[in-house]
Q: What sequence folds into this?
């Protein structure tokens, strides 16, 4: 009998200990709760005119102060994935040769949330400005007005800055908003006013990085973000306005 008990003890040492440790690990996992899911933005980049995915677009995820947290390149179908370090408001910028440099309105990402996002890129070569006006169909007045508005105002070595100002939820355009661009060379600020569709347009912007753009509208907080404009391209930056107070 004694030998049988010793054999049982020996077998339990070899078999019971792993089971005990596994049980403790399971209890610890229950105590800590489920593993936190990362905040992710799963999206697609498409050509604005054709709806076809754009391969090789470079994307950056950054906060409203300009700090960059992740980057990616779209695949053959235009798909991409970016990870946010924590819940909060983020901006998504995209660049692809032959298309406008686009920065999204602010995206609110919740803890552990996966956000689906679609970015539509308009072609940008100033040599094909008439084609671009057809591509900018997001705003009818902008589509009809960009070519005549910029005729005679384009300057060699400069670019165009364009976009739409909307309410925070992105549903309503904000007409009559004052948009101010501060050039990188310290020159005079350029100022324009949004039209009935919330669109603004600067036709001759000197190239630069992190140029401040500020938007003022009655009943809303002042919104600002840095923009980048390259020579011979159209940069598109939208703004979403938050109610004052």
A:
């Amino acid at each position: 009998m004694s030998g049988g008990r010793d054999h049982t003890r020996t077998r339990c040492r070899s078999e019971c200990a792993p089971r005990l440790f596994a049980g403790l690990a399971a209890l610890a996992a229950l105590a800590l709760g489920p593993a936190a899911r990362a905040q992710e933005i799963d999206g697609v980049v498409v050509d604005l005119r054709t709806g076809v995915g754009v391969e090789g677009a470079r994307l950056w995820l950054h906060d409203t102060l300009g700090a960059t947290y992740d980057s990616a390149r779209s695949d053959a179908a235009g798909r991409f994935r970016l990870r946010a370090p924590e819940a909060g408001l983020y901006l998504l910028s995209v660049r692809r040769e032959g298309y406008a440099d686009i920065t999204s309105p602010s995206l609110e990402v919740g803890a552990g949330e996966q956000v689906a996002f679609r970015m539509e890129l308009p072609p940008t070569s100033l040599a094909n400005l008439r084609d671009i006006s057809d591509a900018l169909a997001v705003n009818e007045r902008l589509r009809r007005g960009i070519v005549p508005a910029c005729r005679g105002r384009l300057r060699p070595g400069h670019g165009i800055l364009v976009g739409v100002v909307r309410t925070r939820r992105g549903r309503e355009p904000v007409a009559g908003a004052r948009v101010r661009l501060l050039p990188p060379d310290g020159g005079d600020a350029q100022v324009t006013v949004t039209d009935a569709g919330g669109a603004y347009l600067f036709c001759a912007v000197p190239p630069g990085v992190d140029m401040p753009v500020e938007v003022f509208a009655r009943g809303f907080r002042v919104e600002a973000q840095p923009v980048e404009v390259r020579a011979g391209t159209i940069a598109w930056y939208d703004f979403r306005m938050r109610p004052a107070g």
Summary: The radius of gyration is 26 Å.
